Amino acid sequence: MVWGVRLVLVLVGLGVLGIVVLVLGVIVRPVVTEALRANAAGDWWLPFLPRTDGRYGPLAENHWWSAMRAETPGSTGGLAVRWGFWTLMSLLLVFAAGSILVNLVKLLAKGWASVG
């Protein structure tokens, strides 16, 4: 019985860890890669402009993020709002992921100790 409960704790922990990694991979990784691409090109508008095929990059491609799109480079304020949003969201997600992982480890340690 004890090992069954511990197995469930491990599986739940791995499930939560998988969700956290997925969120970081879907949101934070594209922000970092697009920032690196923009820096290398010397054009910070690059992630928000249409590509040569007419499609947008990951920071402006779906309809929820379509407000980030720009047909041509705009004002410095517009660029600051776009990068400010993505930077804030990335930082908040990294902080939340760290908090979730710390609390998950504490919860698993408590659960592990209480059954044995």
What tags apply to this protein structure?
2 helices; 116 residues; mainly alpha
SSE blueprint:
Layout: H1 2-41, H2 76-115
Helix pairs in contact: 1-2
Structure description:
- The protein has 116 residues and is an all-alpha fold.
- The protein contains two helices and no strands.
- The chain has helices at 2-41, 76-115.
- Helix 1 (2-41) runs antiparallel to helix 2 (76-115).
- It is elongated.
- The mean pLDDT is 94.
The pLDDT mean sits at 94
Helix fraction bin: 55-70%
For the termini, the CA-CA separation is 10 Å
- The domain tally reads 1
What is the structure about, briefly put?
The protein has 116 residues and is mainly α. It has helices at 2-41, 76-115. It has one domain.
